[in-house]
Amino acid sequence: MAKSNEFFKRTRVDSCSYVTVKNGIAQAIPYRPKPKLSESSTSFHQSEHQIAYKISPHMHVGMSNKPLIPYHPLSYRNRLPVLDARKPPKNISSIEFGDRTVVDRKHFVSTSRNIYGNFGRNDPITNTGIIAERTKWHHFLQNK
């Protein structure tokens, strides 16, 4: 506090380096910041691979000891806990064969066969009424 104004020399000011008075206004001069390291002398302590694949705890809102990490709005630290999937009992099978009494006649008919099948369109019939009835019948068969 040797550089401080006479009024502030005997005070216990620990929040600044010294206090000056300019034009009747007291100004606190902050402590000198630590010199910044140049970009070239910066050394990385962890590689990108180590950061990406480090083992992190299963974080959620209700943790008792959350690790301190930089804020991110979508961080798991800010989310509710995700419930684990339940394991099914060992004596239950999940395979279902279905009802074997139901017979589906078109089960193995391909889409191409269903749409472009043998509908007798090669007949030399030009009557539009007959063609319309056949088309309606074939559409009915396709939707079965």
Characterize the overall form: elongated
The low-confidence runs, each spanning 5 or more residues with pLDDT under 50, are none
- Helix amount, in percent? 10-25%
Biggest sheet, strands in spatial order?
A: 1-2
| Number of helical regions | 3
Radius of gyration based on Cα positions:
41 Å
State the end-to-end distance. Answer: 97 Å
Q: For the residues shown, what is the average pLDDT?
A: 80
How many strands, which pairing sense, and closed or not: the largest β-sheet?
2 strands, antiparallel
The sequence of SSEs as H and E is EEHHH
Strand content: 5-15%
| Oligomer type | single chain
Secondary structural class = alpha+beta
Q: What's the total number of strands?
A: 2
